[in-house]
From TrEMBL:
It comes from the Bacteria. Residues 12-72 form the HTH tetR-type domain. InterPro entries: Homeodomain-like_sf (IPR009057), HTH-type_TetR-like_transc_reg (IPR050109), HTH_TetR (IPR001647), KstR2_TetR_C (IPR041490), Tet_transcr_reg_TetR-rel_C_sf (IPR036271). Pfam families: TetR_C_24 (PF17932), TetR_N (PF00440). This is TetR/AcrR family transcriptional regulator. Residues 35-54 bind DNA. PROSITE patterns: HTH_TETR_2. Keywords: DNA-binding, Transcription, Transcription regulation.
């Protein structure tokens, strides 16, 4: 006999809702420390119901880090990131990266914690390097334009800049008492460009 409540529950789950649960568990237990049984228990559905949506744990990881990467790379295609002076485009990218990180906090947290132990993690690390490289190129262009100081190597400046932004995953928790994302993006931009702009 078919358990209709189980069928309804499986059907009520979408890849999106399953991903939300998966990312929470991956962030709590680590990808390597999470089993399909853990995901099944957290989602309240059977393992076979999970396999109804995806091929396995690594596909869930790829979907999750892919969502974070799509958000970040999408910034680089926004009109304000593609036209105008390099320094203004860079400032837009920094501000929007802060906003995307806050909006997609669990997904970006997972992306920043991958270590390269699987093919998906290696792919994610390559994508992160490609993103960092594009930002470093933009920063170098702003230096050549004379808008940013030339005494700090662009790749180092990029690493320091993103170190500040990425630290949000350690302390930022959305809530009524937390500063608004806009307030944080303003602070990051002010601190970064106050130090980076040429005198």
């Amino acid at each position: 006999m078919v358990d209709n409540s189980r069928v309804q529950r499986r059907d009520a789950y979408t890849v999106e809702t399953l991903l939300a649960v998966t990312v929470r568990v991956f962030n709590e237990r680590g990808y390597d420390g999470t089993s399909m049984e853990d995901l099944s228990r957290a989602a309240g559905i059977s393992k076979s119901s999970i396999y109804h949506h995806v091929r396995g744990k690594e596909e869930l990881l790829r979907l999750a880090v892919g969502r974070a990467l799509d958000g970040l790379f999408g910034i680089l295609d926004e009109p304000a990131a593609t036209t105008g002076r390099a320094v203004d485009r860079l400032e837009h990218v920094v501000r929007r990266t802060t906003e995307v990180l806050a909006a997609e906090l669990p997904y970006v947290t997972l992306l920043l914690r991958v270590r390269g132990n699987t093919a998906t993690e290696q792919w994610a690390l390559q994508q992160r390097r490609a993103y960092d490289h594009r930002v470093a190129e933009l920063l170098a262009e702003a230096v050549r334009d004379g808008d940013l100081r030339s005494d700090i190597e662009p790749r180092l400046a990029t690493r320091l800049l993103y170190g500040m932004i990425n630290s949000l995953i350690e302390w930022y928790r959305p809530g009524p008492d937390e500063k608004s994302v806009q307030h944080i993006a303003d602070a990051v931009t002010l601190l970064a460009f106050g130090g980076l702009r040429a005198p």
